Amino acid sequence: MIDSSDEKQRTVLRETLETLWTIEQDFRRSLGDFSAVRAKAPDVSSVVDSILPDTTKQRQNELDGTSLAQLEKLVTACRLCKLEKTRHLVVFGEGNIPARVMVVGEGPGADEDAAGRPFVGKAGQYLDRWLASIQLSRTNGAYIANIVKCRPPGNRDPESDEIAHCLPYLERQIELIRPETILCLGRVSAHTLLNREGTLQSMRGQWFRYRSVPLLVTYHPSAVLRNPSLRAPVWEDMQRLAAFLHIELPHKAR
């Protein structure tokens, strides 16, 4: 689940205002002043917005109408989170547009940070084999991106504030890529796009929806390289994806 520091502050402010309203109402009742007592708490959203504007919503509005080239320029110039201090290159994404499948990973690694391209290391080469097994590639039907566009130091998971800052870029990117399906690689990707918790094991192989786009969850290639026993379930997922896209597979090569 996404829980940025800005949203935490907005939640605390909203709860504080609602608590103060309750205290005021109780105080009026204790004085016998029932003229201003209300049965229902007021909507404090406008007050919260005036004190702490929803920056994520503002940025989403600012990105509306941008082209993919314009969006890439904005991402390249982004300085919104601490990852910009340690990154070498921004990794925007690459592939076929419009895409039959948009693959969404977690974040760039060292190889990607050096090249400015997604999934170019060992995990990326393995991902290319997955796509080839169902007759797709970066130049034929697939587009590849990540939840965050800059490498988290030490290949750690992206933190909630980093995700919150980067998510509007990805959301606009998905709108522009117009994929028929989305393939989420790993827990962070699935939790972010679905905005829900759950173990990867319970979500893997299941179809969900991101807005109106069918979304399939599977393991991250790095996890499969570490644990070859995951190859079989991943192949099942790739077959599911191929069947959904009506791709006939001539053989079952992994």
Report on this structure.
The chain is α/β, with parallel strands linked by helices and 254 residues long. The chain is 47% helix and 11% strand. A six-stranded mixed sheet has the order 1-3-2-4-6-5, with helices on both faces. Strand 5 and strand 6 (213-218) form a beta hairpin. Helix 3 runs parallel beside helix 7 (160-177). It is elongated, with a radius of gyration of 22 Å.
Which helices and strands, and how do they pair?
Blueprint: H1 5-30, H2 45-51, H3 55-63, H4 68-76, E1 94-95, E2 101-105, H5 110-115, H6 122-133, E3 142-146, H7 160-177, E4 181-185, H8 187-194, H9 200-203, E5 207-210, E6 213-218, H10 221-226, H11 231-244
Parallel strand pairs: 2-3, 2-4, 4-6
Antiparallel strand pairs: 1-3, 5-6
Helix pairs in contact: 3-7
Report a brief summary of the structure.
The protein is an alpha/beta fold and 254 residues long. Helix content is 47%, strand content 11%.
Biggest pleated-sheet summary: 6 strands, mixed
The percentage helix is: 40-55%
SSE pattern, N- to C-terminal:
HHHHEEHHEHEHHEEHH
Q: Which structural class fits the helix and strand makeup?
A: alpha/beta
- For the record, the CATH architecture of the largest domain stands as 3-Layer(aba) Sandwich
* Domain tally: 2
Instruction: Determine the N-to-C terminus distance.
Output: 33 Å
Low-confidence stretches: none
Please name the defining characteristics of this protein.
11% strand, 2 domains, alpha/beta, elongated, 6 strands, 254 residues, Uracil-DNA Glycosylase, subunit E, six-stranded mixed beta sheet, single chain
